[in-house]
Amino acid sequence: MTVLVAYVPTPEGDAALTAGLAEAARRGERLVVLNTPREGAPVSAEMAAADAVRAMVEQGAAAGVAVEVRQDAHAGDVADEVVRVAEAVEASVIVIGLRRRSPVGKLIMGSAAQRILLDADRPVLAVKP
User: Does the pLDDT value for residue 63 go beyond 60?
Assistant: First the structure.
């Protein structure tokens, strides 16, 4: 089995990574970190730099957890991609980071986290920084 972390290089993403590493260590499972930019974006703030990816793998090794980082671009909604990858890797749990948003902000912009929580067919662990 696998713990899946939906990661972006933000405080919320770092909180999800920390919680995902702890969960994978506790369960004795591997960790897959999904860091997926939108397809066709020439530059993406959502992509973790190569040194950050190395640090994730090193953190996992220090915790006794095998870490795989996936950075393939996705088309469409990121929530759909997280749910699709969770199924593909047979994730036992999905870990996501949450940021504070106003009710109006949620209504206007929608929420990938909310979509993941509603659409996933497995447990979702949502953490805040």
Answer: yes
